[in-house]
Amino acid sequence: MKFTRNILVWVLILAYLIVVSGFINDKQSGQVIHSIDIHILDASHSHFIDEDDVREMLYGSRIPLLGEKTSMVRLKPIEDKLHQQQIIRTAEAYITEKGILHVDIQQREPFVRIFNRKGQSYYLDREGNIIPVSGSFSPFVLVVNGYIQEPFRLSQTKNLWDFDHDSLSQRQRCIYDIFKLAAYIEQNEFWKAQIQQIYVNPSGEFELIPRVGSHIIEFGRADDTEEKFYKLRLLYIQGFNQLGWNQYSRINLKYDNQVVCIKN
Questions:
Q1: What DSSP line would sit under the chain, residue for residue?
Q2: pTM for this one?
Q3: I want to staple 106 with a disulfide (CB 3.0 to 4.6 A). Which of 11, 40, 76, 90 is the partner?
């Protein structure tokens, strides 16, 4: 008897869920999108795009939204359209019961800005994505300029690693060496605070411009990076902390087991 009662209870529960589900589906099928709620998840520290920019992207995509039945709205094309923007890292679209289309956006985070020899400027993030410059926002990041010529067209390449660079000459690999050197600096709190600019000279070698001190650091190629910064750190600690930071105009790290300094 108890077993039969339990079965009856579960049958009633299942029937209730089916009825409720059908009711909800009928209600939602007739519901329309009456508003769009856009949320920039990292807007507190990055301002490449705002809500108006995202709305313009959506309206310009010719995807019908406002006034459209929720059952007819396809979310993936909306997300795909937003992902076409280089600054957007993630885009998630979903609809709530009240007929609100929610769009959550997360931006890419640049860590270095490039000024190449053609006068073009762009950012790179830690994954090698190329991010266009914004007219309304300039993040405080490491700057690299000078004789930089990419082995690809910026208008056609979205990520450095999309391009086959293994067979390039050392000079042609400049942008990849920049990425390697900038990433090392960015991951080290001391050097991230001290190095504010990298200059690529006509020979394709790197010169570092520090925040503290009037000297220029002749770094050379982007090899033996850890050893070169170790030598420079020793010079700062054992030399500059005692003699002062404005005694030398140039510091050369290119030679093995030594640092060559030129006085002002």
A1: -HHHHHHHHHHHHHHHHHHHHHHHHHHHHT-B--EEEEEETTTTT--S--HHHHHHHHHTTT---TTSBGGG--HHHHHHHHHTSTTEEEEEEEEETTTEEEEEEEE--EEEEEE-TTS-EEEEETT-BEEEPPSS-----EEEEES---SS-TTT-SBGGGS--TT--TTTTHHHHHHHHHHHHHHSHHHHHHEEEEEE-TTS-EEEEESSSS-EEEEESSSSHHHHHHHHHHIIIIIIHHH-SSSEEEEE--STT--EEEE-
A2: 0.82
A3: 90
